[in-house]
Fold these 2 entries.
Entry 1:
Amino acid sequence: MESGFLLRRKGKIHYLTIPPFDKTGIVDHCFTTRLGGVSEGVYSQLNLGFKRGDDQQKVLKNYELICSAIGINYKDLVCSDQIHGDKVYVATEKDKGKGIVRESDIIGVDALITNKPGVPLITYYADCVPIFILDPVKKAIGLCHAGWRGTVQKIGQKTILKMEQVFETRPSDCLVGIGPSIGQCCYEVDAPVIARLKESFSNWREMVIEKSEGKWNLDLWKANKYQLEEIGVVESNITVSGLCTSCRNDLFYSYRKEKGVTGSLAAIIQLKKYNK
Ligand SMILES: [Zn+2]
């Protein structure tokens, strides 16, 4: 598999990590695959979505499996509640377990950030772009969910700018991972999406291939990478997985490929509890 991310295996569980993140030694993290869980049928196997119609007990079991594989207590997870918006939430100890073991008041949030060790964050995917952020200097982390709407609202950029404001993060210090999502190969969009893209990016033409009259294939990885470089993230600090969720339906859930009936993948990250 050719990818900037590394495919790892623990027992039956398969997941991806970002090598430059691994190297820092200060985070536990992964992007999940569909392999190794207990869900069945269209949700097979490692579905992490509670709202997709799957058996709730099986979903919880999947949380337990993937989190124990990467050294996280799943009962501590802070869950996003994604609406394709651009709201960034600063998570702390008081948020642990929200959306998992207790009710959540984190509503309409597509990005989570924290600088608290032992506060694991989780965001959900089935084609949209996962963005992992790690500031190894100020020791802060972030996750954001960028579909085309989040991408044109520049949620990736806004997440790092929020980290700058709250944690004094410098964009040039940040390591970024752009995870598996629908690739340009499979992501056809029409004029309304292109109109929004034009509003946000003067160089939008570099992000699309025109396929036919009124149809373009959009490169969300490029659009997200570009907006991060715009605020000073260093190109060599950005790792792109290069994996398309639709092409690799064997490894991932894909909302488009499976016509909306499928499970959820997740991005998970925490600052290790005992940092030097
Ligand atoms: Zn593809």
Entry 2:
Amino acid sequence: MNLMEAITKRRSIRNYAPTLIPREILDEILEAARLAPSGGNGQNCCYGVVTDEHMKRKLAQAAGGQMWIAEAPVVIAFCANIEYNTANLPEDDFSLAVNRLRYGREMLDYLSGCKDKRGLGIMWANACPLIPGTHITLAATNHGLDTCWIGYLDVAKAGEILSLPSNMACFYLMPLGYAAVEPKKKSTRKPVEEVVFYDKWEAR
Ligand SMILES: Cc1cc2nc3c(=O)[nH]c(=O)nc-3n(C[C@H](O)[C@H](O)[C@H](O)COP(=O)(O)O)c2cc1C
């Protein structure tokens, strides 16, 4: 399967067969995540591979009771370090400069004063799993496997279930396995004219 075929074929699956995933395929999928790019090559993402039935069910409960997640033979738990805090950075820190350009100095100063350091760390690290996770979805599709992003998650509860240390949080889950039933149709996307513009916005 070439890359565009995998991109086109991937869709969210919400029912899974109990069929196990061959170890070498799982290893390749995790390698695809490990090779993902990250801001400043920070590589701030870790991948929990959850196969224990009881733990999968508890995670599914933490995901608002989306119990079908636990049907998959593997649930990936996307975790990241949450210690990043702009208040602790020297004035010449590169990420501080980047974030000031992105969010504005006023917002950065406001966030630096926020007392909820844990909540702040979670907010800053929220995007870390997105590119590795995308690599996983496509590598999985390449092997005839299915996935679904799970962002509806009680982050604190998931961290407890996974026994994460206090400087880590679990941001997303992703069931990984073989669809029990193929969905009838793919979800639709906006037409290209609505989502692409060339040079200036008004030229759309
Ligand atoms: C960041 C993110 C979080 C998501 N969270 C959930 C979720 O908690 N539960 C769920 O059933 N689907 C979830 N989805 C799947 C989306 O609903 C799905 O990707 C979208 O409807 C498009 O469908 P497709 O993936 O089949 O193309 C999530 C997707 C993303 C990208």
